């Protein structure tokens, strides 16, 4: 490989090597802003203490959600970074209230402290050669994809984002992604545009146009299988960000395993430290 | 300077705090200072490669967690080759946890891990003995004595027997392990438990049942550690729900010579070091020079504490000789 | 109208919710509506007058409580004369809990309380049997079978055997109680535990050890109730850490025919009635006509739940046949 | 007995019968005011919901202290009423932060709800005949005694309150009790006036002056024993308010027992429902 490497997170498609994550720390962040984005999602912006390490796109923090008044989350909760602003020492999460921990988190007020542990895990890698990339996300997956857009644009990649949701008002990040320089295509169940064959058509078009040299997917098993098929068909580089329940978040408890294909065998890998971003082809989705 | 050192189960430890098996690994090296630990204890390894249990493998419950990780293992050979040598860069002694489903395989494994770099072997005898109807070795005193004796013959390293709290008479099992030749007792492993998702009517663990750990088990395990410390003369290492220095002190006060911290590290990644710091602070604040002076210092004098600041007259002791309800 | 009625251990209950022994009494009559309960269960009574244990008799721990009340008792005669008749003003059946330290005294007591107004007898066999070295009857299958048989002969009333979670093999004890002639099993009593005040180095209970109850024990007792429901054909009544209708549903789903609520009433005085209301609401919301349909409805199909909304491929089941770690 | 009875809480000294407590309920009160009274004590004033039953002097509530941020009280906490204002539908507690529950309670803000269960237990009874009474209290005991002053004054009793504390600035309620019509005598360790012989002298003086026909004591074993001796010597009516750890608060769990003398025998009585106010002579203090 003779191509210039822009960053150690940018590797050739043939041998995607993962960057070593920054050393994680436990820290007390302070809530800056906490708003409802739509009926389901909330955006939480935090000020980090001086000198805190910053996350790369695809990495996550393990959050100690506050206890009290009947909500007693015991474990930490994993959450991908949605916005990373190292220059302002800020961090943003985009999240959906689904259970105890996120409900407890939803009660944070500006000025409250919030205990985070991170950054954790291995983030996204970009293909070499400023190759154009396509993001495919649904639901919470959009949050994980968020910071990939500016990261790829800064590294000279053209970005197309296909955002899937149940209804048009639940598609998030369209404006942010456009502002960050992505072409955005939205598909929704309500409009009948989110079905696999239709999305497959969009992807094939992009591949044909030379706009899709690498595929990134998150938030849906269905879309992951589709992306795997398209990537295999055209021999594209690809990554998938996966979720699994976590306890330790650092690789010692082995609770967060998912099955992968490796040399024809099924093996278990830990989402927290061998992922959450994995080679697309190897995931058993 | 507070002296936190203890001798425990054939080892001299710089302090009485170590991780619980299965909650610690090389992955944490960047997260807290390994030199601060009293010892290292590895995840249990088995003779052969194993996958572990189906997911979901953990579930949270009030003040605790259920796990049915199983023992995913790369096998003993890979462990001896790849993992053991890497611990030599730090000073604390390395305790290797092992398990197997037959006495023969168990003894072989003990021999396999008796290598340079290993200071002691912790035997996880909470696993099923396939030659005894799948009953865990540590469920009964007889099977405990036998397996410990077998392993005692297989290795010259100090042997720590890790008991299961699911046994009906843990103190008798403790005595049996001592009779069999154990150098220390780890009290204890997780308590078998379960929970159900009322909406799906499914068990919350893929494996249906799993082990309970965390603060919820502390009062139960503390009781067992106390019973074992009274029943045995070899050191007892307390393990169950310890999250803070105060928790560790409870175990030391009832007679444990050391403690292991597990689940707490998942909530506070630096829990182990925080416990060490907390023990030191407690000693400093209360004028204790050596942590040894805390061990077994439980005060059983029967002074009924009076809510009003005076000593109440002791009630008739005879009338009190009753079982708890 | 949701049908909450269940038949359980020889009784027809309007609903499956009743108080746990020792946490209920006539004193609560003004606090919640007694007519709403499935049954009444009294504090254990003993043949003779007893004082109970020294104070402090309770201590709180994370998500639970320790108690060493002992069994203060005015004696059986006073109970039969003064207490039993007062329950006749309400419709729910009265279950009287009894205990004694020898088989003879136990059998005599069973006869003494087999009077008009008593619908069933709950036998608290977690107490020490003085003729067996002070080991509790329910610690071993043999002693359980014998005492239940003795009591079976002593009374014609339905007999509910309340087991202790401190036994190593609760399912075997359950079977033995059934063999002995019990009509139902109450699973279970409190778990032996302790805690220490680190400042005074004293046990937090006057009696040193005591019984743990409350939410902290629920996952352990639920597991035992499930094991007993599989091992026995007589009804199992779940008891341990039930605070809400969801908790009660977990016990019903794993196979219990009724539940007892104890410690929760100390935190929320109307907990019993709240659980009844919650069961009814759950049935209404999920389209269940009869609570009977919930009993034993645990879904054991191995679908690994997928965090991403699809069904993940099942992993190799053989590799999963492992013990929990 | 031919004396007129002002109230069913006012009974002749010869046969003090306890009034039946009002039916207790679980209710959500709202914090009105929460202030530090001195370095150790706080005053919490609550608005009760419409129609809530009101406590009598000496009765208590069982408080569900809020959980959160590392403070997880499990049991309720018993607390005597310090101020009862039925006409305003208000209730006040005077308390000392001593552990988990009271520390959690100390974090309540005006507007917060606070779950109470009560009123519980049996309160103070007054002697017949408008006989003059003397209150003897120390520490938290003063809180329990608080509402006895207006209650006794309204029923025509002359009241002398002897308030004991470590130091003068820790004596509470002096002004309130004076305003309510009591003669107040303060004794403190710091001034050397709180020792038993000195307090005994004060009591003997009051008895000699005819100002002490009944004795009420709370908050100190030492003072209780003194009061017992003086009451026995002069055959005075007397009551003591006792404390013990509680779980149920209503008489079913038998954890809150204390020893009493009854016909020469030692018996256990439950502080929650047979007290917390007991006949002075019978307590084993
Ligand atoms: C690497 C990673 C990144 C994530 N990023 C985001 C994000 O940016 N925005 C967002 O809204 N969500 C994200 N999630 C999902 C998020 O972790 C869950 O929604 C959250 O844990 C739910 O917790 P709860 O207490 O509200 O739900 P409960 O259902 O009460 O949680 C019970 C337990 O299940 C676990 N759990 C439940 N759902 C999930 C899930 N989908 N993934 C992992 N664990 C789960 C919880 O952590 C907890 O341990 C991410 C998950 C992972 C693994
Ligand atoms: C009838 C009655 C009335 C009371 N009135 C007042 C009052 O008006 N003002 C006031 O400041 N205090 C009063 N107290 C004492 C008050 O209940 C305790 O200070 C409080 O329970 C301490 O709780 P904690 O969690 O802060 O302390 P912790 O020490 O953390 O409590 C641990 C456990 O011990 C119990 N406990 C600790 N101290 C006492 C005590 N003295 N009495 C009973 N239980 C105790 C707690 O309730 C809890 O269950 C009263 C007690 C009783 C029994
Ligand atoms: C995720 C997890 C994995 C565990 N794996 C092992 C193991 O491999 N071997 C073992 O002996 N104990 C294992 N345990 C039990 C712990 O070592 C410890 O005995 C138990 O968790 C109680 O301590 P704690 O409450 O501090 O966690 C495991 C516990 C957890 C939570
Ligand atoms: C204060 C207290 C007293 C108890 N007394 C008795 C008793 O007399 N007899 C008995 O069989 N169980 C007794 N128990 C045990 C309960 O009946 C019940 O089995 C246990 O508390 C678990 O249920 P819970 O978690 O809902 O409280 C007592 C429990 C408590 C907390
Ligand atoms: S969460 Fe513990 S190994 Fe991944
Ligand atoms: S607190 Fe339960 S009987 Fe008094």
Automatic annotation (TrEMBL), chains A, D:
Any Pfam family the entry gives: DHODB_Fe-S_bind
Residues noted as binding FAD in the record, renumbered to the chain: 77-80, 101-102
SUPFAM superfamilies noted in UniProt: Ferredoxin reductase-like, C-terminal NADP-linked domain, Riboflavin synthase domain-like
Domain of life: Bacteria
Requisite cofactors: FAD; [2Fe-2S] cluster
Annotated cofactor note: Binds 1 FAD per subunit. Binds 1 [2Fe-2S] cluster per subunit.
Binding site for [2Fe-2S] cluster: 248, 253, 256, 272
Protein family: Belongs to the PyrK family.
Name of protein: Dihydroorotate dehydrogenase B (NAD(+)), electron transfer subunit
Gene: pyrK
UniProtKB/TrEMBL annotation, chains B, C:
Residues that coordinate or bind substrate: 43, 67-71, 124, 189-190
Enzyme class at the top of the EC tree: oxidoreductase
GO biological process: 'de novo' pyrimidine nucleobase biosynthetic process; 'de novo' UMP biosynthetic process
Cofactor binding summary note: Binds 1 FMN per subunit.
Pfam families: DHO_dh (PF01180)
Dihydroorotate dehydrogenase catalytic domain residues: 4-281
Keywords: Cytoplasm, Flavoprotein, FMN, Oxidoreductase, Pyrimidine biosynthesis
EC number: 1.3.-.-
Residues annotated as catalytic: 127
Keyword Flavoprotein: yes
GO CC annotations, alphabetized: cytoplasm
Cofactor: FMN
Catalyzed reactions: (S)-dihydroorotate + A = orotate + AH2
Subcellular location: Cytoplasm
Binding annotation for FMN: 21, 43-44, 124, 162, 214, 240-241, 262-263
Biological pathway: Pyrimidine metabolism; UMP biosynthesis via de novo pathway
One GO MF term: dihydroorotate dehydrogenase activity
Transmembrane segments: none
PANTHER family recorded: DIHYDROOROTATE DEHYDROGENASE (FUMARATE), DIHYDROOROTATE DEHYDROGENASE (QUINONE), MITOCHONDRIAL-RELATED
Family affiliation: Belongs to the dihydroorotate dehydrogenase family. Type 1 subfamily.
Functional summary from the UniProt entry: Catalyzes the conversion of dihydroorotate to orotate.
Protein name in the entry: Dihydroorotate dehydrogenase
Organism: Salinarimonas ramus
Gene name linked to the record: pyrD
């Amino acid at each position: 490989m003779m191509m210039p490497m822009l960053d150690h997170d940018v590797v050739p498609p043939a041998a995607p090597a993962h960057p070593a994550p920054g050393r994680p720390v436990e820290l007390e962040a302070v809530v800056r802003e906490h708003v409802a984005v739509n009926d389901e999602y909330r955006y939480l912006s935090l000020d980090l203490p001086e000198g805190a390490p910053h996350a790369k796109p695809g990495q996550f923090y393990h959050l100690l959600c506050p206890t009290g008044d009947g909500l007693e989350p015991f474990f930490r909760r994993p959450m991908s970074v949605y916005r990373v602003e190292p220059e302002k020492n800020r961090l943003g999460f985009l999240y959906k209230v689904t259970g105890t921990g996120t409900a407890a988190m939803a009660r944070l007020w500006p000025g409250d402290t919030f205990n985070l542990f991170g950054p954790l895990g291995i983030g996204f890698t970009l293909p070499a050669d400023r190759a154009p990339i396509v993001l495919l996300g649904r639901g919470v997956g959009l949050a994980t994809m968020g910071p990939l857009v500016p990261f790829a644009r800064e590294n000279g990649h053209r970005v197309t984002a296909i955002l899937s949701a149940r209804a048009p008002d639940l598609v998030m990040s369209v404006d942010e992604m456009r502002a960050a320089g992505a072409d955005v295509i939205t598909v929704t169940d309500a409009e009948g545009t989110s079905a696999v064959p239709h999305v497959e058509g969009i992807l094939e078009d992009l591949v044909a146009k030379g706009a899709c040299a690498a595929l990134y997917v998150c938030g849906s098993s269905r879309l992951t299988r589709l992306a795997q098929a398209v990537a295999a068909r055209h021999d594209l580089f690809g990554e998938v960000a996966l979720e699994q329940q976590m306890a330790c978040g650092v690789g010692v408890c082995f609770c967060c395993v998912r099955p992968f294909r490796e040399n024809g065998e099924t093996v278990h890998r830990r989402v927290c430290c061998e992922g959450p971003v994995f080679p697309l082809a190897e995931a058993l989705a | 300077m507070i002296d936190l050192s203890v001798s425990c189960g054939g080892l001299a430890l710089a302090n009485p705090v170590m991780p619980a098996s299965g909650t610690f690994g090389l992955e944490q090296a960047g997260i807290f200072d390994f030199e601060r630990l009293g010892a290292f204890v590895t995840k249990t390894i088995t003779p052969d490669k194993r996958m572990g249990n189906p997911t979901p493998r953990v579930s949270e419950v009030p003040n605790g967690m259920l796990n049915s990780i199983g023992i995913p293992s790369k096998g003993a050979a890979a462990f001896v080759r790849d993992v053991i040598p890497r611990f030599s860069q730090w000073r604390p002694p390395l305790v290797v946890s092992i398990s197997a489903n037959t006495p023969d395989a168990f003894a072989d494994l003990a021999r396999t891990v008796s290598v340079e770099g290993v200071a002691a072997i912790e035997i996880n005898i909470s696993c099923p003995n396939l030659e005894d109807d799948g009953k865990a070795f540590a469920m009964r005193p007889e099977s405990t004595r036998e397996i410990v004796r077998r392993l005692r013959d297989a290795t010259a390293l100090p042997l720590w027997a890790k008991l299961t709290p699911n046994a009906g008479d843990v103190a008798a099992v403790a005595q049996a392990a001592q009779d069999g030749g154990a150098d220390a007792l780890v009290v204890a492993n997780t308590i078998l438990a379960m929970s159900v998702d009322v909406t799906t009517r499914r068990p919350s663990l893929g494996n249906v049942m799993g082990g309970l750990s965390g603060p919820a088990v502390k009062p139960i395990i503390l009781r067992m550690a106390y019973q074992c410390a009274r029943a045995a003369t070899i050191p007892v290492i307390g393990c169950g729900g310890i999250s803070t220095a105060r928790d560790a002190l409870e175990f030391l006060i009832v007679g444990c010579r050391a403690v292991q911290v597990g689940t707490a590290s998942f909530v506070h990644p630096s829990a182990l070091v925080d416990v060490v710091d907390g023990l030191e602070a407690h000693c400093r604040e209360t004028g204790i020079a050596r942590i040894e002076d805390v061990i077994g210092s439980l005060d059983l004098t029967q002074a009924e504490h009076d809510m009003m600041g005076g000593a109440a007259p002791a009630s008739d002791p005879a009338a009190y000789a009753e079982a708890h309800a």
